[in-house]
């Protein structure tokens, strides 16, 4: 009886572990955690008992200092780093590095690997960036807020794919692939916008040194170097040089990701030959002892090493970083950036407009809700009409418009651009509120349209 109870307990624990793993791997899990962190950040920034500590924590200095005997303080590295800056300029490098790995994979062997496959999502992404930028400029032309035109141009891939996954088979698989490829192309566009328009004063010496190191890494890649530390150490140095160069340091993450080799260390022939030899050794070492014995463990470690190095470094890093980006980096970013202190009801009025500051709220909100779907839809329609691309298989124009609405979910990258676009804290906070409201509205409208059009398609 006791043995049976123990068996049930072990089985229950195993099932709970499997359920937990499945939840973590679900496409919507990262978006759900991100949403919770947004709510927590808003509470921390507005509750009387926590808001002072919340802002003090974000402003805490993290720089390394050296104090001499005579009391003189010298900065080591990095100068002027606070908790908030560490999240935005340091931790987010990991996010951008993962984005760069994903972009490289799609360009080399994915949905962006050929002109015919890439043209529709790339054109759609371009339209989805141009239209919201024009809408923002229409509301804010000639005002202090005009520099925020890049805020509504980005799509948050985690939230968008998460919403699609919750809608199940109502959306054709071809449209899910289209939205994923579009979001990747959109990320590349957002990286270019940040690099070209939201950098500071450029220190050429640091930038040139960084480019020389990257050229050395590229040469090292071409010569066949496959050891990860040979790329990790230069990546850290390049990040530091970018940090002081004036070009936003997160761009170094994308740049270094594009230099990571995709080719495996071992060829297919070597892998097959070595695996047969190791497998034979494991079987030959079989004894009546418990499996595996000491000799078998040695060969199993060799097999593990062989299989690991037979996968390209880029794929390994992308797979290894994915859970940390989804459940650590992005939630911490949300906690540090989504906490907007709402001092009055006027703060929630995203339709507020002034002659000096323009209307950040209306530009961002309507850029995400209307500009993104219209830009994506019209660019896609034009590419198909001109014969440059084909409409995704098994889809209608109505369903493509509904999915395009989900492109208006612009949380992570939009908030990041918002923090770069403005110096005025009031404009930054109003932009964040508009991003949250516009993203929620785009998710709701897109989901409702998908449910409506899928129901009509079944009835029809």
Please characterize this protein's 3D structure.
It contains 17 helices and two strands. With 460 residues, it is an all-alpha fold. It has two domains: 28-199 and 248-263 and 312-459, Up-down Bundle (Na+/H+ antiporter like fold), CATH 1.20.1530.10; 268-309. Strands 1-2 form a two-stranded antiparallel sheet. A hairpin with a 5-residue loop joins strand 1 and strand 2. It starts with a helix and ends with a helix.
SSE blueprint and pairings:
Layout: H1 2-25, H2 29-46, H3 51-58, E1 65-67, E2 73-75, H4 83-109, H5 115-140, H6 157-166, H7 173-197, H8 204-222, H9 229-245, H10 251-257, H11 268-284, H12 294-309, H13 313-337, H14 360-385, H15 397-406, H16 412-421, H17 425-459
Antiparallel strand pairs: 1-2
Q: Approximately what portion of the residues adopt beta-strand conformation?
A: under 5%
Q: In the CATH scheme, what's the topology name of the largest domain?
A: Na+/H+ antiporter like fold
The CATH superfamily of the largest domain is Na+/H+ antiporter like domain
Total number of domains = 2
Structural class: mainly alpha
Task: Spell out the helices and strands N to C.
Answer: HHHEEHHHHHHHHHHHHHH
Shape-level CATH architecture of the largest domain: Up-down Bundle
| Low-pLDDT windows of residues | 1-11, 13-18
| Main β sheet profile | 2 strands, antiparallel
């Amino acid at each position: 009886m006791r043995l049976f109870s123990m068996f049930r307990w072990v089985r229950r624990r195993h099932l709970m572990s499997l359920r937990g793993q499945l939840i973590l791997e679900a496409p919507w899990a990262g978006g759900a955690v991100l949403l919770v962190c947004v709510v927590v950040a808003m509470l921390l920034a507005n509750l009387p008992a926590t808001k002072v500590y919340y802002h003090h924590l974000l402003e805490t200095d993290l720089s390394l200092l050296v104090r001499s005997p005579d009391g003189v303080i010298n900065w080591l590295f990095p100068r002027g780093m606070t908790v908030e800056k560490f999240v935005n300029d340091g931790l987010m490098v990991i996010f951008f590095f993962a984005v760069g790995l994903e972009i490289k994979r799609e360009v080399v062997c994915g949905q962006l690997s050929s002109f015919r496959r890439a043209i529709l999502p790339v054109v759609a992404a371009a339209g989805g960036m141009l239209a919201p930028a024009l809408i923002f400029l229409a509301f804010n032309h000639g005002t202090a807020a005009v520099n925020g035109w890049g805020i509504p141009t980005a799509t948050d891939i985690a939230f968008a794919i998460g919403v699609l996954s919750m809608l199940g088979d109502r959306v054709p698989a071809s449209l899910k692939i289209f939205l994923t490829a579009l979001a990747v192309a959109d990320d590349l566009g957002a990286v270019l916008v940040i690099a070209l328009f939201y950098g500071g004063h450029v220190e050429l010496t640091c930038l040139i040194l960084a480019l020389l190191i990257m050229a050395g890494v590229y040469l090292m890649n071409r010569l066949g170097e496959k050891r990860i530390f040979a790329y990790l150490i230069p990546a850290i140095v390049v990040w530091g040089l970018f940090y002081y160069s004036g070009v936003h340091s997160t761009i170094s993450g994308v740049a270094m990701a594009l230099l990571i080799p995709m080719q495996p260390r071992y060829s297919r022939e070597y892998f097959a030959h070595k695996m047969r030899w190791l497998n034979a050794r494991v079987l030959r070492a079989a004894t009546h002892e418990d499996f595996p014995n000491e000799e078998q463990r040695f060969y199993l470690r060799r097999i593990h090493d062989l299989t690991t190095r037979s996968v390209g470094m880029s794929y390994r890093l992308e797979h290894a970083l994915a859970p940390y980006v989804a459940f650590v980096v992005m939630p911490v970013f949300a906690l540090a950036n989504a906490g907007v202190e709402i001092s009055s009801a006027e703060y929630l009025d995203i339709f507020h407009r002034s002659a000096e500051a323009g209307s950040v709220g209306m530009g961002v909100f309507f850029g995400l809700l209307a500009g993104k779907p219209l830009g994506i839809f019209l660019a896609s329609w034009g590419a198909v009409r001109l014969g440059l691309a084909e409409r995704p298989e098994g889809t209608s124009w109505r369903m493509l418009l509904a999915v395009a609405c989900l492109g208006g979910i612009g949380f992570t990258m939009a908030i990041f651009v918002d923090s770069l676009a403005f110096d005025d804290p009031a404009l930054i906070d109003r932009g964040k509120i508009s991003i949250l409201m516009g993203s929620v509205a785009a998710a709701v409208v897109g989901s409702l349209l998908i449910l409506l059009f899928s129901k009509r398609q079944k009835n029809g």
